[in-house]
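Each field is set out underneath.
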Amino acid sequence: MLRHGEAMMSNANEKDADRALTRDGRARARETARAASERGWIPDVTLCSASRRSRETLEVMGEADAAFGAVGRTMYLGSLYHFASLDGQYRTHLAECVAREIGILAACPPEEAACAKVPDARTIMAVGHNKGMEEAATELCGEEVRLLPATAALLEREVDADATWADVLSEGKGKWTLVAVATPDGLVANATSS
């Protein structure tokens, strides 16, 4: 679960979804990417909000490690922007997106190597906005998770071999473990606030 980097202030001539990252937001996203990459937090698949600041966050992270935002393994979804502001609905919507988008990526022609491992994806990264990101992470692990700009929470869970992503994301609260939080300043182990 990754919250986008710090964005420019809104102005009357621009839609909120079109706000760009600040210079500091770009730098901090790059540092978070390094902290995550050094620890092997590399996604098999990424679901990213279609907002400009989310796309730019992923783009900057990709400059630090090409695995972030890899072509054929990244989907940009406008709904991740819209659902972030709805109380208590982000986790359910994220589960629906994962079920739908993993199927779309898995349907790539077999000769496209970028799609080869998608059906067996073990790590999915969601890039988006608060309050939805914090709510979803908190619901999944059953403890408060605080996501500041350009901060990523690694959640993990043991599952049965026949479990699907939709199954494990839609099941009740507290089934996941918060492993750590990656910030631009490094890793905070078992952090519930940073």
The chain has one domain: 2-189. The helical segments are 23-38, 52-64, 79-82, 90-106, 132-141, 165-170. The domain at 2-189 is CATH 3.40.50.1240 (Rossmann fold). Residues 113-117 have pLDDT under 50 and may be disordered.
